[in-house]
């Protein structure tokens, strides 16, 4: 595959693995030649995914592996300084992330499977 080609959708997990407001499924992507962790979770029935990188300081956010939601399971909350994000948009709603937002990764679901969609900037880990 040529460097500028975009890879096809990548299978991430079975739809059933993403339980409503449950533990996230983590995966690796390459962004600008660097390995970056990403995560997918289900919120209000929708599967969403973001890079695991806070908009405040570019560090991983989970409290424990796969645990991103606050105690009430209403928001994604960074474990480092408490930045709060809307789970469906990735937009910062409170805390030190200001007007930042999480970097979204497009997901689709088909036949009980979840796929993530690589872009020119965000590639499958095997492609680099
Ligand atoms: S690193 Fe996430 S709130 Fe500071």
UniProtKB/TrEMBL annotation:
Annotated keywords: 2Fe-2S, Iron, Iron-sulfur, Metal-binding
Molecular functions per Gene Ontology: 2 iron, 2 sulfur cluster binding; metal ion binding
Domain Rieske: 10-116
Pfam families: Rieske
InterPro entries in the cross-refs: Rieske_2Fe-2S (IPR017941), Rieske_2Fe-2S_sf (IPR036922)
Protein name listed in UniProt: Nitrite reductase/ring-hydroxylating ferredoxin subunit
Originating organism: Roseateles saccharophilus
């Amino acid at each position: 595959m040529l460097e500028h080609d975009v890879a096809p959708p990548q299978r991430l997990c079975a739809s059933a693995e993403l339980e409503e407001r449950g533990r996230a499924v983590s995966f690796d992507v390459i962004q600008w030649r660097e390995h970056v962790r990403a995560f997918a979770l289900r919120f209000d029935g929708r599967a969403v995914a973001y890079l695991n990188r806070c908009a405040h300081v570019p560090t991983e956010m989970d409290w424990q592996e796969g645990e991103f939601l606050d105690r009430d399971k209403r928001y994604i909350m960074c474990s480092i300084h408490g930045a709060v994000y809307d789970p469906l948009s990735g937009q910062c709603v409170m805390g030190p992330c200001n007007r930042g937002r999480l970097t979204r990764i497009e997901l689709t679901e088909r036949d009980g499977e979840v796929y993530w969609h690589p872009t020119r900037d965000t590639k499958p880990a095997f492609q680099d």
